[in-house]
Amino acid sequence: MRFRLYVDESGDHTYKNLDITSRRYLGLTGIAIESDYYRTDFQPSFEALKQRHFPHNPDDPVILHREDIYNRRHEFGILSDPAKNVLWENDFISFVSGVKYELFTVILDKRKHRTNYGSAAIHPYHLCLTFLLERYRGFLNNKIARGDVLAESRGKNEDFELRGAYRKVYHGGTYYISAQQFQRALTSNEIKTKGKSSNIAGLQFADLLAHPSKMYILQSQGVVANTNSPFGRRLYEAFRGKYSSPYGQKIM
Fold first, then answer.
1. Is it the case that residue 194 has pLDDT exceeding 90?
2. Which long-range contacts (CB under 8 A, 24 or more apart) does 165-173 make?
3. pLDDT tens across 96-132, in order?
4. Per-residue pLDDT tens for 9-47?
5. What is the value of pTM for the model shown?
6. Which of 18, 133, 164, 238 is most buried, with most CB under 10 Å away?
7. What is the largest CA-CA distance in the chain?
8. Which domains does the chain possess?
9. Do residues 139 and 244 touch, judged by C-beta distance below 8 A?
10. Sheet holding 25-34, edge to edge
11. Where are the alpha helices (DSSP H) in 8-151?
């Protein structure tokens, strides 16, 4: 079996305004999907979902982006109509609960990390990626499978540094897992990156679930207060069974 892990973040890697909850926690979410299933079922179903609610020319595709949907920007202004919004929410929740994927989210308390390590603190995104790769490797090993990783592009310099962080794990291993173990599980010595405009279903799905997954974990473990909307609660119910136990969640 071959899998691909689609990766997106919620939050940022900076150490600014860490007393604000929304800035304090960085979450990195990976969604692992088996490659044949992705090609024959997941990707076509995702495109059909988009066409039902945001009709568009396939040559000029709509890109699902949580922030734009939440703020009703651009093509998503249509969701200002309550009836259309209900149809979208119901259909999206059915998709989230119905398709096959494994969910991983690693969360870093940046304030705690910076307090503990000071100037020696590891780059937050790269640290989250390291722990995410450890958990992905465990999942692949359990499935007797192999896989690669595709992350959303964050800029030329950021992507360059991300590739270096990935190679460090692939060639050097971590405290818990040897390089040889990573190399047996991962099919590539390079992490792949693509921008939003590439219209990759797996990356859009990761974008839509990264923030809700982070908040679900923080709330379920009592780190932050539960302030969910009815839609948020329904969404949590839809994806919470998708965490790849025992690899799916980690808070640092």
1. yes
2. 165/123, 165/125, 165/126, 165/129, 165/130, 166/129, 166/133, 166/190, 166/191, 169/129, 169/130, 169/133
3. 999 999 999 999 999 999 999 988 888 999 999 999 9
4. 998 888 888 888 888 999 999 999 999 999 999 999 999
5. 0.95
6. 133
7. 54
8. 2-251 (3.30.420.10)
9. yes
10. 192-194, 146-152, 2-10, 25-34, 102-109, 249-251
11. 21-24, 35-37, 43-53, 66-70, 82-98, 110-117, 124-143
User: Cβ contacts of residue 7 below 8 Å, gap of 6+?
Assistant: 28, 29, 30, 129, 132, 149, 150, 151, 152, 206
In single-letter form, the type of residue at position 198 comes to S
DSSP state of 41: I
Quote the CA–CA distance of 147 and 153 in Å, as a whole number.
19
Lowest pLDDT segment from 2-6, 38-42, 115-119, 175-179:
115-119
For 248, the token pair is 């799916």
